[in-house]
Each structure stands twice: as C-alpha cells, then as structure tokens.
C-alpha cells in the first residue's frame, strides 16, 4: 500500500467514542460500496493504528483512529470521504491523502471475525428457528460458554442496511509478512489476506 488517509475520532461529553465508531464505519462502508466492483470488492483497506486486544482485565478497543490505505491515490480520491463524513465533521478530523512513510515498523492485517455468540443469543435463535420454549432452549445450551478468544476481540456496533438489525463487527488483527500480491477488500475495507504497513 502506497497511500493513506488518517481519520481521528473526537468524542465529546455528549457523544461517546463507541457511538462515533458506529457512525463513522457506516459512512465509510457506504463510501466503499459506491466504488465496489462486480464481485463486491474494493481496492481500499482500513486499519486501526491504536488497536488494543483485551489483556487481563483491560477491555479490547479499536482505538480512536481509522486509517484507509490504497495502492492508487485515485482510489482514495474516488471515495470522496468529505461528502460521506460531512455530518460528522464536528466529531472527526480527517487528514489529506499522504504517502506511506518508508520507515514502517511492521505489517498487519485486519479482518472481521464472526463470533460464536453469547449463550443468550444462541437461546433466542434456538427458540425462533426451532419453535422451542425458553426452557427447552436453555436446556439445549446448558453448560455452553463463549470462547475466550471471542470475548477478547474489540468490536464496533453496526446496523445492517438489509435487515435493519444491529450486530457487533468484531475486528481481529494479525501480524503479516510483506507481499507483492494484489488483494482486494470487502466493503468494510477488511481482508484476512491484506497486508498493511504499520507506522
């Protein structure tokens, strides 16, 4: 990746950072949908430079900064983020497109992880899909616990444009090895194969 844009969230007393993440990621998603190809993929990636996984009693958090990458500067210009973030201008600070510096400290990838879900979520789903009573569903999932690795992941609360349902988009970060392979990203800017510079 050769070019990037930084967006910093600016929460206030009445607007929290988690609420801002929901709004920001929805607008970025809509911008990426506008430039998607016929396979619903885009040449723009997102990263979370302040990402911190859960450690001990400290909750995982994606931070307060979003970074968008592209190999071609035109792809970032095509996004027209100023238009999409217009309503959030008091709560986000967007820098101009810049070149990725040569002194990167490593490489990483960001992807969405579909969590196995909480016991309550499974019970509700079992009741709906299998016409089960609460007691039957609770008995079916007796002893179930959500895996620790799922609980540890930072997430952004999102809303589906298709179903209008809310969901938690869990973000997993992994160290990566530099690659010359050209990778496309989904309309959230995420990909397990994407290699992004860290600086």
Automatic annotation (TrEMBL):
Domain of life: Bacteria
Residue ranges that the Swiss-Prot or TrEMBL entry lists as coiled coil: none
Pfam families in alphabetical order: Cas_Csy4
The name this protein goes by in its record: Type I-F CRISPR-associated endoribonuclease Cas6/Csy4
Matches recorded under CDD domains: Cas6_I-F
InterPro entries attached to this UniProt entry: CRISPR-assoc_prot_Csy4, CRISPR-Cas6/Csy4_sf
